[in-house]
């Protein structure tokens, strides 16, 4: 096992579980390094066994998002991490849509994409109150519009 390449696995919170201690949460630079590793070393390796690939990347990006939420991080670098998570789900929605449900569940992927987009919307709003604007905001707001085309509440 290459411990230098190990990535923290996502673990679901439960009611009887205490909040993590500060040393159990990865700081922003570590989260950035983890995402860079996923993007450059893992995401290009999906050919053939999509289920294991998708489950691994989704689990690890979900863990990154959980660490961000638990630390209440909100700055342009954090936004960039959530944008990368969102792009992963967008990529999968397009490239894996023909895969059988046992390999790729489009509904779960869309739910996670929606959660990412909601987090981004909130972060963009919080940063705008500090007069900090993110260069990709328009792009990700458009993805939200595209997701809601059939809902009738596009502008919410």
TrEMBL record:
Gene3D superfamilies: 1.25.40.990. Residues 1-24 are annotated as: Disordered. Residues 1-11 have a biased composition (Basic and acidic residues). Residues 2-156 form the SAC3/GANP/THP3 conserved domain. InterPro entries: SAC3/GANP/THP3, SAC3/GANP/THP3_conserved. PANTHER family: 80 KDA MCM3-ASSOCIATED PROTEIN (PTHR12436), GERMINAL-CENTER ASSOCIATED NUCLEAR PROTEIN (PTHR12436:SF3). This is SAC3/GANP/THP3 conserved domain-containing protein. It comes from Cirrhinus mrigala (Mrigala).
């Amino acid at each position: 096992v290459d411990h230098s390449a190990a990535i923290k696995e996502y673990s679901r919170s439960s009611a009887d579980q205490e909040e993590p201690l500060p040393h159990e949460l990865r700081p922003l630079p570590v989260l950035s390094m983890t995402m860079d590793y996923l993007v450059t070393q893992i995401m290009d390796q999906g050919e053939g066994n999509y289920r294991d690939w998708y489950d691994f990347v989704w689990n690890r990006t979900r863990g990154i998002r959980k660490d961000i939420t638990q630390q209440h991080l909100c700055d342009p670098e954090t936004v960039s991490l959530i944008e990368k998570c969102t792009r992963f789900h967008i990529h999968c929605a397009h490239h894996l849509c023909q895969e059988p449900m046992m390999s790729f569940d489009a509904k779960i992927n869309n739910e996670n994409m929606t959660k990412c987009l909601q987090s981004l919307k909130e972060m963009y709003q919080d940063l705008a109150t500090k007069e900090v604007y993110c260069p990709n905001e328009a792009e990700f707001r458009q993805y939200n519009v595209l997701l809601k085309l059939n809902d009738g509440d596009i502008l919410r």
